[in-house]
Amino acid sequence: MSTNLPVLEITDLRVSFPTESGVLDAVRGVDLTIAAGRCTAVVGESGSGKSVTSLAIMGLLPDTAERSGSIRLQGREIGDLDDRAMSGLRGAQISMIFQDPLTALTPVYTVGDQIVEALRAHGDIGRSQAADRAVELLDLVGIPDARRRAKAFPHELSGGMRQRVVIAIAIANDPALIIADEPTTALDVTIQAQVMDLLATIRRETGAALLLITHDLGLVAGAADDVAVMYAGRVVERARADDLYRHPRMPYTAGLLASIPRVDSDQAGPLVPIPGQPPVLIDVAKACPFAPRCPAATTACTASEPALAAVGPDHDAACHRAEEISGSGDIDGHPIFAATDDDVDAPVPTGDEVVLRVRGLTKEFPLLRGILRRQDGSVYAVDGLDFDVHQGETMAIVGESGSGKTTTLLEILRAEPGTTGSVEIGGVDFSTLSRRRLRTARKAVQIVFQDPMGSLNPRMTVRDIVAEPLTAYGTPRREIDGRVRELMRLVGLDPAHASRFPAAFSGGQRQRIGIARALAVNPALVVLDEPVSALDVSIQASVINLLNHLKREIGVAYLFVAHDLSVVRHLADRVAVMYLGRFVEIGPATAVFGDPQHPYTRALLSAIPIPDPQVERTRERIVLTGELPSPSSRPKGCSFHTRCPLRPRLSLADQNTCITVVPGLRSLDDSGAHQHACHFAGRHPTVSR
Question: Which of 396, 564, 609, 664 could anchor a disulfide with 568, C-beta 3.0 to 4.6 Å?
């Protein structure tokens, strides 16, 4: 892919694992080359072999794994090195940034000590000098007050800071290769943008090669020079990023691109998911493994597996019909993956009936100090929220972690001490009900959780899971089985599979089970707590389409919490942007996305990656500095003023207004539909990336 001296060369890498059902071929002949200073992204669905490839490079495969092929680092064969020899390379010449920074750090050591350990393990350096270098590294990765933070334990830092510490450890010894395995999955979009900018700076300054493993094609568009798409344990397409996004030559790549929700497009059309599931890599047939899911498959595809071959300059694809594919994934002028009649839904009319009415919702947590645990102040996790959700409407609440989104959902689902204000669902004020009446009233509101596996009892069959709320609310036994079959058909599951357990289903199917359970008692409102964030992009697309379809079919209303504004764009009718327990902007989705008023909203939107390299690398970005303040030390005046990119551009008098006066929500016009809480909205700063 590049004429530069390769940092990493992988040739015919194969990794297999013994299982009770046979040998699982997790990686089947991967070839990959990364040059110094370049970023190669490896993308694909779960189970495609991405992470196993990275573990093979790091020499971290389990003892049961069988590996063959060549792995060369700067010309040196490292694939056959024992663990002792690899320990000398890991952290020195190869480093890895893991997905979850909290589990990647040792909880009983300070972050400074952990950086010192990495420095002293691979270099002749004294402890005092290493400690000073650790502070320099923390400052380099953008952690404020680095000397004080070096003495902190991992749990005392935010998620973004923890990931920066992991990056500091990764670059401590100037490695030639950095492997980043889903480095931003657990982070807010604003922190994600900061981390990716940091990795780009490190790559530019040190010349390190970066292997980025991710399922986020928007992230790849802005970060990668080259892209390798993996499916069924092998690379099925690789090219320079611009070429691959503009002209994919393998149907699987075209399908991934078609299924991505985009923040820069409206709800005019549905997402186009890839049908079916990835294959189980045991006794793989001598055929294209993507053929069962490919609308363009021919008899040749089922007769032999295509080799990865050149289809253009620096562009390889493994497809029998690669030469026929043109444009952005068309054959004979028609897209390979197109929306079906089942995917296309007309706009859902919003009813006049108010399903959820929230007035003055406030959740207060007391601050207890001292041995006697006396109250010394309060934390307002939610502070005076007012909003309505109408029949057939999707209301989305967005914001960074710690803004109060999940607390808002919990207070709507249950009224507890410390909560003030009123929550009416179906005209019934939950805060006035006794415990017994509250249990009955909760039938009107159900929830779909983020993790479909964690929210389903693995010891219960699908029939029992879906029937559980029906039984709880006294549905006659003779009616339950018929209702379960009806619900499974409604969410696109085969009723014949009702006797199976959750483990027999894919992630997307398990989420459909959760949705069927939520709809079992005909709720007026379904609460969606990050319902697609744990799913692959193609499965995510099918669940988004399903939610829109159900809204049209049965008129259910959704209260939707998410940090991914691309998903929100495709689901929401109205959007509320939350910061430190308060709404800073609220209005129709078209207005909030098309004409954002609050600087925080604009920053969130600019941080969402767009899956188009040309657009992503040339658009202007608004960069937020610092972390979300703790609710226990909320800034006076406008709570956003400590991070606001607009405030430094104002006059001193106007800045004083921001610092001392709390802005209330104000309307843009007489309709009151679009409101914002900013003293000086309209004076929008833009900072080039």
Answer: 396
Distance CA 532, CA 530 (A): 6
pTM over 0.70: yes
Q: How far is CA 269 from CA 101, 447, 483, in A?
A: 37, 26, 31
Final residue before a domain boundary, out of 287, 322, 343: 343
Q: Is 429 helix (H, G, I), strand (E, B) or coil?
A: strand
**Do 26 and 82 reside in the same domain of the chain?**
yes
* pLDDT at residue 216, rounded to an integer: 85
Query: Strand 234-240 vs strand 309-312: parallel, antiparallel, or unpaired?
Result: unpaired
Regarding whether 255 and 133 lie in a shared domain, the answer is: no
Q: Which of 145, 172, 199 is the last residue of a domain?
A: 172
Residue of 399, 473, 332, 313 whose CA lies nearest to 624: 399
Dihedral angle, C-alpha 610, 337, 509, 528, nearest 10 °: 40
Counted domains in the chain? 2
Please state, in angstroms and rounded to a whole number, the distance separating the CA atoms of residues 247 and 317. 11
| Nearest C-alpha neighbor of 183 from the set 325, 22, 39 | 39
Residues 17 and 54 in one domain: yes
Half-sphere exposure of 163 (CA within 13 A, CB side): 23
Q: Look at residues 88, 78, 4 and name the one whose alpha carbon lies nearest to residue 39.
A: 4
266, pLDDT greater than 70: no
Domain, as residue range, for 192: 1-93+175-343
Query: Is residue 558 within 8 Å of residue 392, measured between CB atoms?
Result: no
Backbone φ and ψ for 462, nearest 5 degrees, come out as: -60, -40
Q: Are strands 354-369 and 374-390 parallel, antiparallel or unpaired?
A: antiparallel
For the ranges 2-11, 151-160, 207-216, the one whose mean pLDDT is highest? 207-216
> Alpha carbon of 464 to those of 195, 468, 470, 519, 521: distances in Å?
44, 6, 10, 14, 14
Do 113 and 5 lie in a common domain?
A: no
Residue 208 belongs to a domain: yes
**CA neighbor of 61 nearest in space, from 73, 38, 36, 78:** 78
The answer to whether residue 15 is domain-embedded is yes
